[in-house]
Every structure is written in structure tokens, then in C-alpha cells.
Amino acid sequence: MELGTQKPSQLLRRMKELGRNAQTSEQNLRNLWISRLPTAVRIVLTVSHDQNLENLARIADKIMENIAVGEVAAVSSSTSGSEPMIEIMSQMRKLNLEVASLREEVQEHRRSVFRGRGRGRGFSRHRSTGRSRSRKPGDEN
């Protein structure tokens, strides 16, 4: 997905729509979106890292309005299909699902280890207490 003749805010809107289906994080979306903008716009936006995406899109739109026509034409002429973007979004979705699955496995592992330790300690205390009672001389209850 390229900027082409659309405004940066329009490109961001389209990427958000695609990213919503792929469960893309905002940081990944930000990086992809900025990478699709002209160099002059990227330079300004990279120093504005504390801004949210909507504010960055407004800033990018203003910059694009003031960029020389020749630079805009050069950016517009390099168009390619959206297939690479769709593939990247698909891969990101798969990675996000894998990370979520791994997190669940780690949490389940931690829970099972915690439960195992709790049972083991309780059992060993009970056994040691039971032995000490049975070994006391003169205690026949």
C-alpha cells in the first residue's frame, strides 16, 4: 500500500482498516505508515514520537500541502500493488496469535508449577508432623 495521490491521513485510515482485521499493534501500524511517507515527512514525524497517530496524520497532511510539486510527483510515480502490504499484515497477525498462544502457555506453566509446589510443601509438612507424633514415646492415641 503506497501513499500515491491520497493524503497521509487517508493512507493511515486505510491501513487501520486493514490492521484491525490483522490485530496489528499501534506501534507496528505507526512504523508501517511512516515508512510509506516521503522522506521529508518521515524526518519531521520521527521527532514527534510522543504524538498519537491522528495528530501525526494531521501534521503529515500539512507538510504534504507545503512540499514542492516535484517531490510529490516523484513519490506518486512509484506505485506498486498492495499485495506486499497485505502479506505483511497477514504475517503480523500470525505472529500476534503465536505470541498470545505462548503467553497462555507460560501462564499455564507458572500456574501448574505454583500448584505443584503448594501441594508438595503441604504434603511434606503433614508427613513430618505425622511421623513426629507417632515416634513420641508413651503417646499411644
Automatic annotation (TrEMBL):
Compositional bias per record (Basic residues), positions renumbered to this chain: 112-135
Protein name: Uncharacterized protein
Domain of life: Eukaryota
Organism this protein belongs to: Pieris brassicae (White butterfly)
Record region (Disordered): 108-141
